Amino acid sequence: MSQPSNQYNRPLPPEIYRRRRIAAGVGLLVLVLVLVLIVRAITGGGGDSSETAADSSTSSASAAPSESATGSADASSSASTSETSGSSGPSSEESEGADPSESRTAEPTGTCNVDDLRLEVRSGAPTYAGGQLPDFIMSVTNNSEADCTVDLEANPMSFEVFNLASYERIWGDTDCNEPTATEDIDLAAGESRNFALNGWSRTTSAPDQCADRADAGTGAFLLYGHLGDKVSEPATFNLA
Q1: Which of 15, 35, 201, 216 is deepest in the core (most CB within 10 A)?
Q2: Residue 204, CB half-sphere, CA atoms under 13 Å: how many?
Q3: Where is the composition biased (Low complexity) (predicted)?
Q4: Whole-number Å distance between alpha carbons of 2 and 40
């Protein structure tokens, strides 16, 4: 059984009807807004996809010149390469007769560069007693990877002695004598040969000054070896 709309079956106040009409109007407006949003969402998505398609076609159109430009660059590059190859062809054919490895292996038959050699000197003893004459030894090593020949006439070999305290040159074996070794030296790759000077007189000398040679005295001395313009590291010895 239905309930009465109010306890006394009287008409409701006008405010109630107005509120109902307002609520109904608001509900209708909300429904219309929802429908509009749905329609706009549908039509808007279609517009985006068409715009995207348009953008894609524009990108493809703009990319085409770029690819053709790249193709042109590649073509010109190929042309340049072929021209270079064509110009270098004759020189390549001319150089085929000479093998670079053969030219490198031909070097050992010539005169060796002194810079390829290592010089080491040493005294026959660390200390010499009074009256004992020192012996000097020079070791020459071929540091190159090829056999070579050293011209000792063009690159004379010599020894020099300096006073360690004053660093004064007091003697050289070629001051008053010609170099004792003048023949060519043949050195294989990595080979070493020793050359000795026996019996330094323990007297001073200078180039072309061989008269009135004085006693070298006692103390510590430095020994150097020379081969042409190349100079060894010094070795030390003592005279007592």
Answers
A1: 216
A2: 14
A3: 49-92
A4: 45
| Residue 44: domain span | 11-97
Nearest to 211 by CA among 179, 178, 175: 175
Q: Which long-range contacts (CB under 8 A, 24 or more apart) does 129-132 make?
A: 129/240, 130/218, 130/240
Residues in the chain: 240
Nearest CA to 152 out of 173, 131, 178 is that of 178
Tell me how far apart the alpha carbons of residues 189 and 106 are, in angstroms, rounded to a whole number: 14
- CA–CA separation, 195 vs 183, rounded Å? 12
Last residue of a domain, one of 97, 131, 159: 97
What is the model's pTM?
A: 0.54
Residue that has been written with the tokens 């790759």 in this structure: 189
127 and 168 share one domain: yes
- Start-to-end CA span in the chain (Å): 147
Per-run averaged pLDDT (10 residues), the chain, 240 residues: 46 64 78 81 57 40 38 36 36 39 41 83 97 96 87 92 97 90 87 94 92 94 96 97
According to DSSP, residue 115 is labeled G
